[in-house]
Amino acid sequence: MTRLRAADAEKRHQSGLGPDFLEALARGMSVLTVFDSQQRQLTLSDVARAVDLPRATARRALYTLEQLGYLESDGKLFRLTPRVLRLASAFLGSTGNAAALQSACDRLCRETDEACSAAVLDGEMAVMVAHSSPQRFMSSAPGIGFRVPAFCSALGRVLVAALDTPARQAWFAALRPQALTPKTVTDPAELQTITAKAGRDGYALADQEAELGFRSLAVPVRRFDGRVVAALNIGIRIESAT
């Protein structure tokens, strides 16, 4: 046990996380984020492999999250429970912007009869914090919490353009873009040019780069001091052409 603690301390030191970093909590959070729309149910082995942890460590994390009510299991497969929504609702309630953004999305959806979303930046992804869709899209519409790569989405490009220069440079330095459609721009230099243009123009347009047949236009949402706090977009379905 002493050797393990020493190894953990050395790992934290090397990664620059410091002595206050709580490894157990980090592992638990990493386990929660493994589950998504493509991986709704996972075995212990699936989770251990996905988060690169020993099976024993992954088992303890899964057990703890199950006891806390964030996961449920049939003895083999684990899945999220509705309790995880408490985390999302806590964020949406604490920002103070969620209600206003949802109201704006609802209004734009009524006026244009097209889908409207608001998003914030989370690492390499733009995450929807408000969304409204016309009735004809309701069965297939994304919802709050839906994530889309920022580099190839109008929402994401507006949000990245709003970062200060050091943060934006670091963001692009860490980016490893992969094409989602034949129209996705992946060249780093071109992406930086497109993002800079979005910052100058005050809007971004993404034409079938995240999904074929889907084109979106996004603008920044600014608070009273001019700081960008979210991005707002309208998306339309079109006939795709490769």
The geometry reads as globular
Query: How many domains make up the 3D coordinates?
Result: 2
| Range of helix content | 40-55%
Strand content: 15-25%
| Order of strands in the sheet with most strands | 5-4-3-8-7-6
Q: Which regions contain 5 or more consecutive residues with pLDDT less than 50?
A: 1-14
Q: Which fold name corresponds to the CATH topology of the largest domain?
A: Beta-Lactamase
Q: Structural class of the secondary structure composition?
A: alpha+beta
Q: Any idea what the CATH architecture of the largest domain is?
A: 2-Layer Sandwich
Summarize the model shown.
With 242 residues, the chain is α+β, with helices and mostly antiparallel strands. The protein has nine helices and eight strands.
Explain what this protein looks like in three dimensions.
This protein has a 6-stranded antiparallel beta sheet with strand order 5-4-3-8-7-6. The protein has a two-stranded antiparallel ribbon with strand order 1-2. The N and C termini lie far apart (58 Å). It is of the alpha+beta class and 242 residues long. The longest helix has 15 residues. Helix 2 crosses helix 4, helix 3 crosses helix 4 and helix 7 packs across helix 9. Helices cover 43% and strands 20% of the residues. The protein has 9 helices and 8 strands. The N terminus is likely disordered. The chain folds into 2 domains: 79 residues, Winged helix-like DNA-binding domain superfamily/Winged helix DNA-binding domain (Arc Repressor Mutant, subunit A, Orthogonal Bundle), CATH 1.10.10; 151 residues, Beta-Lactamase. Strand 7 and strand 8 form a beta hairpin. The chain is globular, with a radius of gyration of 20 Å.
